[in-house]
Every structure is written in structure tokens, then in C-alpha cells.
Amino acid sequence: MLVHIGKIVHRKMVGKYAVPAFNTSDLETTMGIRRAAEALNAPVIIQTSVGTLEYAGMEEIAEIIKIEARKAKVPIALHQDHCKDFAIIKKLIDLGYSSVMIDASGMEYKDNVKLTKAVVTYAHKRGVMVQAEIGRLLGNEDWQDVKSGEDLMTDPDEAAKFVAATGIDTLAVAVGSMHGIPVDPRIRKILAKTLKEHIDLPRLAAIRKKVSIPLVLHGASGVPDDQMRAAISHGVAVFNIDTDLRVAFNKALRDNLKKNPQIYDPRKLLAPATDALQKMAETKIKLLKTNGKAK
Ligand code: G3H
Ligand code: ZN
């Protein structure tokens, strides 16, 4: 069923388990996520990026997600990921999104507060939750491209001040995860040494001490499992996952094309890729201990 995000992301779950926020851009991804959630009796968030709204059409993709969610036997919430445009946010609220992220993290602190506060006032009047970000994640996602040196880890004191000043419902933090697959050779070199992204757990713990609202970890693809689990115990209630699903889909699609050059029916080309995406979503659901949490 399609539910308000507040039904599946709330303070009571913090520290115990987390909910995945999977990005979608099309019907196949949405179906794969919905099937994974149903197979494991898990609540999930399905989110759109601004790039997806442009690719699929705002009304069209919102409708696809709402239809898939309504027919699901588990709770599914609709959320807008990284958006810096207030006008788009207003339209999405009209379309039934129960949660939006206003991402003014590229702005000066005071401008971030000003815009975020305005969105919170508008959204709360309409019963919609708001996520915002303090700090800046390394990497590339959608309209954002934060290069090495431009990234900014979240400062715990600033985070607490920001939450109090804006009244947001969930806070996205930058604690070492990165968006997407690194294309910057310097970042590839850094990651090659550690092999994986590295979460600054002491920083996360310090943020948690000062911030009581649920925390959101963006760029969760590529984060080692043990660090994901540790992040849950430090207050991360939502993990944003996109790249891992895309990679699983891509690999299966390419294999299928290679093995079966005679297939020209798009459904037969896409079905194994959707299955692979579903499997990856199930792996993440189990990792976050979301399985069995649909009431
Ligand atoms: O907002 C979406 C996410 O932060 C996705 O990041 O592609 O690294 O999983 P990811
Ligand atoms: Zn993100």
C-alpha cells in the first residue's frame, strides 16, 4: 500500500533497523523494488531524482510508483530525492509525495537555512515531511558533481544548529560515503587503497549525540556491510541506494544481450535485469534488517 513516509520512518525505529530509499527512473526498477519489498515483507521508500522527473515525466513516474505501491501488500512511501527547486517541490506535493528533500547543501549556511525553512513551513502545512542536508557528499549523482576537495563532512554542532533552525524531519549527513561510481582518477586511487568507502563512525556518533531526528545516509552503494550495520546503531534510519541497483540491472542486461543476440522483444531483454535488480534490493533489505518489518 502507498503510505505516508512517517508510517515507516519514525523515531521508534532509530538504532534498531533502517529503511532503504531506492531510486527509480522507470517501470522496471519500480517493479523490481516493489517485488523485493513484498518478497521480504519490508517497508521501503521509492524515490525520484530531478533527472528522473525530466527523463520519465513528473506525472508519469509519480503515477507509476503510486500504482505499484497501492497494489503492494507492504507499505511503500514516495519521496523526492535531492531537489533545490522550490517550484518543483510544490508540484510534487500536489502529486501526493509525502516527503521531499530540499537540497541547498551547495549554498552558504544561512541561505541553506532560509530556503530549507521556507520549504518546511510550506510542506508541514500540507502534512509532508522534509529532509535536508548539511555537509556535501563527494561524487556524482544527477545534477550534483562534487569533486575531491569540494566535499564537506558534516559538522555535529552545525548539524544540531541547522535542525533546530529549520524544523526538518530527517537529516542527510556527509560522513564518508559517496555518490555513484567514482570517475575522478584521484578518488579511484584513494578507494583502491581502502577498496571500499569508509564511514567516519566517531563523527556519526557525535552527530547522533546532538541530533535526535532520524539520520539519512546518502551514497550507500559501495559502503561495506559492517559499516552499514554500525551506522544503523548510530542513528541512521534511511539509506539511499541507487548505484548498486543500477549496476545489478546493467550487468544482467548486458549478459542477456550478449548471450541472446536473437532477442528483440524488450520485455524478454529487460526481465532478467529486473530480476537481478530485485535480488540486489533484497540483499539490501536484509542488510538493513527491514525484512519482516511491514506491519
Ligand atoms: O540520493 C541517492 C543516493 O545518495 C544514492 O547514492 O548511488 O551511491 O547509492 P548511491
Ligand atoms: Zn544522494
Oligomer: single chain
Strand line-up across the major sheet:
1-2-3-4-5-8-10-11
Structural class: alpha/beta
Query: Helicity level, as a percent range?
Result: 40-55%
- What value does the average pLDDT take? 94
What percent of residues are in strands?
15-25%
* Termini gap: 11 Å
SSE layout and pairing:
Elements: E1 19-23, H1 27-39, E2 44-48, H2 50-56, H3 58-71, E3 76-83, H4 86-94, E4 99-102, H5 109-125, E5 129-134, E6 138-141, E7 144-146, H6 156-166, E8 170-173, E9 178-179, H7 185-194, H8 201-210, E10 215-217, H9 225-233, E11 236-241, H10 243-259, H11 266-287
Parallel strand pairs: 1-2, 1-11, 2-3, 3-4, 4-5, 5-8, 6-9, 8-10, 10-11
Antiparallel strand pairs: 6-7
Helix pairs in contact: 1-3, 1-11, 2-3, 4-5, 6-8, 10-11
Bound molecules: glyceraldehyde-3-phosphate and zinc ion.
Account of the 3D structure:
With 295 residues, this protein is an alpha/beta fold. It is 47% helix and 17% strand. It has 11 helices and 11 strands. The protein has helices at residues 27-39, 50-56, 58-71, 86-94, 109-125, 156-166, 185-194, 201-210, 225-233, 243-259, 266-287; strands spanning 19-23, 44-48, 76-83, 99-102, 129-134, 138-141, 144-146, 170-173, 178-179, 215-217, 236-241. An 8-stranded parallel β-barrel has the order 1-2-3-4-5-8-10-11, surrounded by 9 helices. Strands 7-6-9 form a 3-stranded mixed sheet, with no helix packed on it. Strand 6 (138-141) and strand 7 form a beta hairpin. Helix 1 runs parallel beside helix 3. The longest helix has 22 residues, at 266-287. Bound molecules: glyceraldehyde-3-phosphate and zinc ion. Residues 82, 141, 179, 218-219, 240 line the site of zinc ion.
